[in-house]
Amino acid sequence: MSTPLLEARDLSVSYGRLEPVLRHVSLALRPGEILGLVGMNGAGKTTLMRALSGGLKARSGEVLFQSASIQGRTTATLARAGLVILPEGHRVIRPLTVDENLELSTMSLGRGRVRARLNATRELVYGLFPILRERRHQLAGLLSGGEQQMLSLARAIVQDPKVLLLDEPSLGLAPMVIDRIYESLGSLRDKGISMLIVEQNSQRVAKTCDRLIVLREGVIAAEGSPDMLAGDRLQAAYFG
Ligand code: ATP
User: What is the pTM of this model?
Assistant: First the structure.
């Protein structure tokens, strides 16, 4: 089996001196894979995403990106190395145009790579989301909620990720827009980007992901293929 791109080993995380929110979590994201992470409110999904991307320190255990510990590395340095997190909510800069939003995200790559990267990836994201090409000179703040979510995703893509961590990409969006977003996530996987997707909407992520993990009260309650974890088995893992 191929070496994981991102791995949590026996990871426990707490906020301050409180009881750990995550306890002994181990998971592996393999190249070219979409892993769905589901669970109830407060199960620890966002905490896990933050710990996987350098935003929270492990209390014990470790996180490895491309086989190296992420300890001591910031979210920004990890993003430059190809581990990009897209937190919940629309991460766009409202007073800038669509084009300018993309350009600014590419800046984080460092000077030499910016121009070449921008031209290549702009075509990629405008191919994925033609509506953004149509709106490229419009201010991001004037886009609809769905278009802003597409632009958030586009801003993550232009950073040239190997791994994308997405927190609730379907939150608050209409079913048609959710389908559009998930279609694009499938295309990104085909282009070699691996993803971990956190969702409340377990049915939707199950349709697209290769494997599902159910988190309950900070521990992994179940893990398997979406087929294996369908219906009652998913419910049982969710609610205990
Ligand atoms: P949701 O779906 O509601 O976003 P979640 O599964 O992402 O939930 P987390 O946001 O990771 O869950 O929260 C897990 C637990 O950690 C909850 O009990 C929450 O109250 C607690 N928690 C989250 N952030 C903090 C914080 N900054 N300080 C203290 N406790 C926190």
Answer: 0.92
